[in-house]
Specification:
Blueprint lengths: L8 E2 L2 E2 L9 H19 L17 H14 L7 H10 L9 E10 L6 H16 L8 H9 L10 E5 L6 H7 L6 E2 L4 E3 L2 E11 L6 H31 L2 E2 L13
Antiparallel strand pairs: 1-2, 1-8, 3-4, 3-7, 5-7, 6-7
Helix pairs in contact: 1-2, 3-7
């Protein structure tokens, strides 16, 4: 007997097609977008005739209305000088200029038709294997990269050479730079290309600019943090007021969300 797929919906508006199975993260993303789209309609910023999203894509009018809604509803405090200084002191290494990392990797690439679950399992097994390699077994990483990696660097033992932050995809750079770890990183590194097992062979620390030079970047970082927090709270409030089916969302029934 064929199992019927339970469709996720927000106030009766479906988030997926009847024949479409989506992972939890995609469903939550679509649910949050639909909560905001319906809130924009309720606020008179968007026509009630605006079409429901198709395959998760909203109309241009809905996207513009959501921006106006968030600008109006999210109250973002301006970062204080004291907050900026605390952030600078706690995260100085993140803003280092000229930092370099000597690294190599094994890439498990996301390609059309690949079984993502099986790929992750292979990547995790590879990570465990290389983390547990015997001391002095210097060629083990290179051997695994040559046999396993989906990157051309596999022919060179996975060697990436000396890298600066600008040499990497941003999501890859965030895992490598501003850290102190040397050796095989204890976690898989996610990037737009797939999953990476990464070994840091050496680090050259960069120079951290002074507070005044970094002030604009610090203000921007704290504004972004405030936006993310305020958006999460607003979505919790909207979810608490909506009929949510088939998707797990944090919800609150009061505006006093902390």
């Amino acid at each position: 007997m064929q199992q019927t797929l339970t469709l996720a919906a927000i106030n009766g508006v479906p988030l997926q097609r009847a024949d479409e199975a989506l992972d939890d993260d995609t469903l939550r993303q679509r649910a949050c977008t639909e909560l905001l789209r319906q809130a924009a309609i309720g606020a008179g910023l968007l026509s009630p005739d605006d079409p429901a999203p198709r395959d998760g894509a909203t109309s241009a009018a809905a996207s513009a209305a959501i921006e106006v809604l968030l600008d109006r509803e999210l109250k973002l405090p301006e970062p204080s000088d004291e907050a900026c200084r605390r952030h600078h002191a706690a995260h100085a290494a993140r803003y280092a200029v000229g930092e370099r990392v000597l690294a190599r990797h094994v890439l498990f690439a996301v390609m059309p038709g690949v079984d993502v679950v099986a790929m992750r399992q292979r990547a995790e097994a590879c990570l465990l294997d290389l983390r547990c390699q015997a001391r002095g077994d210097a060629d083990r990483f290179a051997e695994v990269a040559a046999k396993t990696s989906n990157c051309p660097s596999g022919a060179e033992g996975g060697a990436l050479g000396w890298l600066g932050a600008d040499d990497c995809a941003p999501e890859f750079a965030r895992e490598l730079f501003g850290q102190s770890e040397v050796g095989v990183l204890p976690r898989l590194v996610h990037s737009r290309f797939g999953l990476h097992v990464v070994e840091v062979l050496a680090r050259e620390p960069g120079r951290v600019p002074g507070f005044e030079a970094l002030r604009p970047a610090l203000v921007l970082a704290l504004r972004q943090q405030a936006f993310v927090t305020a958006l999460r709270q607003y979505l919790q409030l909207l979810a608490g007021q909506a009929r949510v089916e088939g998707v797990e969302l944090d919800a609150a029934d009061t505006p006093l969300v902390q």
